[in-house]
């Protein structure tokens, strides 16, 4: 049984529970991105099992008629076994989504995996245009160059500030500097794209900036937030006509999910506590 404090952030342990959560969110005008909990598999069989689960989940979503999609983690579908296995599974999942007129996001993990993840995204998006999206982290010093490389790729880009505690040699570590980079990256995306921009942020200032930029450039965009965090704001934005997606993890690995988030960065614990308290 998932304890109440965790259930706020996890959409149950089973697929039916996750779909029920998506249905409830849809009633409030909020779409859902479902992520099966699991990461850092070093056994190819584990990666294959989760890839198969995503294939079935895409079928289940299509059959349900829900406004939902999926998001995979590279290390969940084979990255820690080999980059080839990761891309093989990633491509297979996106191919199924393309058949179903569905959508697949790929999360970004630690900086050691960035190149392989972006290589796979670029290749798969070329074969299955606008059926796939990639998360990009503004705290990395390389991100401006990565966005320039990806700006014409036919896939969505989810811009986040970044949750991994990377060294200062490759990442901005000061909050104000990360915010500055995020604003610069948003401006670049809206200046260069008229579709496929996803604003992955709970920061009201960044969401307001995105709205202003979208209006200036006549561009489409969406806002993405985590389940359990600022859900009132999610519903309010949806009511205003903004495309809002809630990232909702599910599965029986919820304990390791919270452990990893806290271990990666101490600020994550404070962030979760503030979300629970509604601050």
TrEMBL record:
This is proline dehydrogenase. Keywords: FAD, Flavoprotein, Nucleotide-binding, Oxidoreductase, Proline metabolism. Its cofactor is FAD. It is an enzyme of class 1 (oxidoreductase). SUPFAM superfamilies: FAD-linked oxidoreductase. GO terms for biological process: L-proline catabolic process to L-glutamate. It comes from the Archaea. Pfam families: Pro_dh. Its EC number is 1.5.5.2. It catalyses: L-proline + a quinone = (S)-1-pyrroline-5-carboxylate + a quinol + H(+). Residues 19-273 form the Proline dehydrogenase domain. The keyword Transcription regulation does not apply. GO terms for molecular function: nucleotide binding; proline dehydrogenase activity. Pathway: Amino-acid degradation; L-proline degradation into L-glutamate; L-glutamate from L-proline: step 1/2.
């Amino acid at each position: 049984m998932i304890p109440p404090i965790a259930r706020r952030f996890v959409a149950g342990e089973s697929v039916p529970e996750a779909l029920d959560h998506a249905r409830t969110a849809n009633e409030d005008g909020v779409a859902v991105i479902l992520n099966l909990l699991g990461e850092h598999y070093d056994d190819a069989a584990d990666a294959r099992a989760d890839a198969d689960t995503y294939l079935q989940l895409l079928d289940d979503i299509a059959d349900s008629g829900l406004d939902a999609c999926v998001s995979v983690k590279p290390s969940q579908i084979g990255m820690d076994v080999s980059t080839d296995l990761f891309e093989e599974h990633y491509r297979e999942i996106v191919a199924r989504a393309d058949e179903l007129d569905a959508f697949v996001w790929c999360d970004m993990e630690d900086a050691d995996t960035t190149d392989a993840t972006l290589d796979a995204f670029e290749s798969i998006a070329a074969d299955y245009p606008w059926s796939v999206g990639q998360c990009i982290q503004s705290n990395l010093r390389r991100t401006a160059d990565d966005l320039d490389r990806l700006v014409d790729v036919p896939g969505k880009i989810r811009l986040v500030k970044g949750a991994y505690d990377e060294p200062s040699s490759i990442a901005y570590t000061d909050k104000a500097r990360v915010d500055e980079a995020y604003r610069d990256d948003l401006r670049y995306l809206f200046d260069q794209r008229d579709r496929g921009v996803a604003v992955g942020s709970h920061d009201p200032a960044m969401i307001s900036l995105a709205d202003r930029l979208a209006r200036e450039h006549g561009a489409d965009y969406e806002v993405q937030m985590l389940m359990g965090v600022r859900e009132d704001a999610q519903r309010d934005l949806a009511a205003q006509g903004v495309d809002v997606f809630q990232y909702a993890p599910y599965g029986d690995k919820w304990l390791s999910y919270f452990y990893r988030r806290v271990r990666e960065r101490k600020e994550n614990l404070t962030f979760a506590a503030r979300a629970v308290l509604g601050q």
